[in-house]
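Dig into these lines:

——
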Amino acid sequence: MGLLPKISIITPTLNQGRFIERTIESVLNQGYPNLEYIVVDGGSRDGTIDILKKYEKRLVWISGKDRGQADAINKRIRKSTGDIMAYLNSDDVYEKGALKRVGEYCVAHPAVMWMTGKCRIIDEQDREARGMITGYKNFLLKHFSYNVLLVTNPISQPATFWRREIVDEMGLFDISEHLIMAYEYWLRIGRKYRPGILDEYLASFRVYSASKTSRLFLTTFRREMEIARRYSGSASLNALHYLNYLGISSMYLLMNALSRTRSKE
């Protein structure tokens, strides 16, 4: 195995003091030998800055206003120095050894321009949740194709990494997209490059009542459908995406209803 590539991880954050320390430790405790870690704070007022100061000898952090999550990430991608890059939101975490597995995969597969792995869903207490959705996404990853991506999004953002050459060729995230910027990026780069699929858990995605995923899931799924049509041009695939939209929306509505019922018991 050759020298492991430098990996740049960017964490955008705003008032996530209750979770960000877990995120930071999941990155720094990887023990990855060639890591650049940057936290971009949008002007938090909840104690986030005190946490960042605690770790400032082991990471780079800045704080100031930006035009949203995509803008914050884009600015730091431009100034990052890694061969491989990713972003990890400030309520998500990496699995142990994730960066080593990614680095080794990149060395072993130099022609693969971007890669993704499996991702758990966890709650506020780090307990695994929504196993049916995780299983569904894992099944789709095993049968991945660009047509699958045009119908639904099986790619978990926290478990996805890409080479710097992708940015040079394809550009950065669309700052006008505040909910599905990652999905739009996967569609953009996936038209030309098939992702490498790592059959391992690389990250955990946190879902809780105040998260965008929980509050805005119907808007998110509808916007995914609109963006997919921009890249598709196929009436059949568009129809399948609509059916998937109905199914996944119904599943989320049912899960939320069951969660409310349990909370009242």
About this structure: The first strand starts at residue 7 and ends at 13. The radius of gyration is 18 Å.
